């Protein structure tokens, strides 16, 4: 009789033998930069040459779908239905990556060539998200090798447009609700709170990106001849921003302040670590006063200026420009009026005398906020399994601080969403030198094959 420990050992052997890194190297070698207009053939190549053969070796029936949105890349769907009475697990990954940023990596590394350096494995897509969905799919493979069946039904969706806002994903899910129906989503993206401890999160903060612009006149005018006579768009813009958030970053727009930091959420956040020893030092006097760091990043909204410009910063001259702009973003939690975000901003700027500040809403980076109760039976089951395997109590978050298209699963499909990330905060995702840590990847493989084993043996938590 096969055992849970034998399934774990099979996953360990797969990693320790070097085969896992060889498999990952092939995935990284395909430059699936969805932000580049010419990337569509590479996105399709990733699905056809790597994902489809992998799933079919695991006994999945597969189909590649065109994206209903011309701006997005294709989808791969796979399913292995063993028994209609079994619970059905849906899992997800995204095969696209951000731009490789070749020439900016340490030591002249090629972003699309996997490279080992001690415990670090470098390559674009290692952390986000190729390694993460490879771990989950190969964990299913290890379970099948050990038991010859999953003991549950499994569906897989791999998209190729997450890094450009998951264009078309919502429409695809609306069209294929029956096909994608499942009891739970168990998927992986984002970082662990601490590299050596498993993390579970059940939702994500939403994100709304917008541009503020002040356009007073064409061209620039000499600051000596016209200083004191012409309104300065950069000063107007700076003051407009200062009325959105105060000197410590506290949001000043009433409609942007959430209502969902309830006692149960505060309790769930009370013992969570925040920050990373290899990352920047947390600003203790920044953000909403009276909140803990965990409450600020997981339980509250945050406003940020991503970029701003007036004139020519690279070569300033003695002139007052006629134009200034800033690209801004609000990260928001459940309990925020999404439809009212931009109207509330417009009303607030007008009330403070900034009617000349125009608002342009951006489509990119728009994900809704979602959250599942940390006490959901699926969350409890996954957490208990991870604790048994790792020997450490997982960090359980009501939502990720970042954003991902979780609303497609939680709202469109209406299923519980449980995310088990396999990266860590210092992984440099979206930047040069993106990498994963070998110990984290190995630990994740052990955890996931054991989790799938537990579902195979025990079924859905509600049916116990």
From TrEMBL:
Keyword Plastid listed: no
InterPro entries linked to this entry: Cyt/Met_Dipeptidase (IPR051458), Peptidase_M20 (IPR002933)
Naturally occurring in which organism (per UniProt): Pseudovibrio brasiliensis
Family matches, as PANTHER family: BETA-ALA-HIS DIPEPTIDASE, SUCCINYL-DIAMINOPIMELATE DESUCCINYLASE
Superkingdom of origin organism: Bacteria
Protein's name according to its UniProt entry: M20 family metallopeptidase
Keyword hit for RNA-binding: no
Keywords attached to this entry: Hydrolase, Metal-binding, Plasmid, Protease
């Amino acid at each position: 009789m096969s055992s849970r420990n034998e399934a774990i050992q099979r996953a360990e052997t797969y990693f320790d033998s070097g085969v896992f890194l060889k498999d990952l190297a092939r995935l990284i070698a395909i430059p699936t930069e969805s932000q580049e207009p010419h990337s569509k053939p590479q996105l399709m190549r990733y699905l056809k040459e790597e994902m489809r053969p992998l799933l079919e070796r695991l006994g999945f029936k597969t189909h590649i779908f065109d994206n209903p949105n011309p701006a997005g890349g294709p989808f791969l769907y796979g399913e292995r239905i063993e028994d209609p009475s079994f619970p059905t697990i849906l899992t997800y990954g995204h095969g696209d990556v951000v731009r490789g940023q070749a020439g900016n990596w340490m030591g002249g590394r090629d972003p699309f060539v996997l490279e080992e350096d001690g415990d670090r494995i470098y390559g674009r897509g290692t952390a986000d998200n190729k390694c993460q969905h490879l771990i989950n799919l190969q964990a299913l493979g290890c379970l099948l090798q050990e038991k010859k069946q999953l003991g549950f039904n499994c569906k897989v969706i791999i998209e190729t447009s997450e890094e450009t806002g998951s264009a078309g994903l919502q429409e695809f899910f609306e069209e294929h609700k029956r096909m994608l129906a499942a009891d739970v989503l168990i998927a992986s993206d984002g970082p662990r709170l601490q590299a050596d401890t498993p993390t579970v999160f059940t939702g994500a903060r939403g994100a709304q990106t917008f541009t503020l612009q002040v356009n007073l006149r064409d061209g620039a005018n000499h600051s000596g001849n016209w200083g004191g006579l012409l309104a300065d768009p950069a000063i107007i813009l700076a003051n407009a921003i200062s009325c959105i958030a105060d000197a410590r970053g506290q949001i000043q727009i009433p409609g942007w302040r959430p209502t969902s930091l309830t006692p149960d959420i505060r309790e769930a956040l009370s013992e969570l670590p925040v920050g990373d020893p290899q990352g920047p030092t947390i600003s203790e006097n920044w953000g909403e006063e009276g909140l803990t760091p965990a409450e600020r990043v997981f339980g509250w909204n945050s406003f940020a200026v991503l970029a701003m410009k007036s004139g020519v910063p690279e070569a300033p001259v003695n002139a007052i420009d006629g134009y200034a702009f800033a690209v801004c973003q609000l990260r928001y939690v459940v309990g925020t009026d999404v439809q009212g975000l931009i109207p509330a901003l417009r009303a607030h700027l007008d009330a403070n005398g900034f009617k000349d500040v125009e608002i342009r809403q951006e489509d990119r980076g728009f994900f809704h906020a979602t959250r599942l109760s940390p006490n959901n039976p699926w969350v409890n089951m996954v957490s208990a399994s991870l604790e048994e395997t790792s020997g450490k109590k997982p960090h359980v978050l009501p939502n990720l601080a970042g954003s991902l298209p979780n609303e497609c699963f939680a709202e469109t499909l209406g299923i519980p969403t449980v995310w088990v990330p396999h990266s860590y905060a210092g992984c440099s995702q979206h930047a040069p030198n993106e990498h994963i840590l070998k110990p984290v990847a190995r630990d994740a493989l052990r955890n996931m094959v054991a989790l799938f084993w537990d579902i195979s043996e025990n079924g859905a938590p509600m049916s116990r």
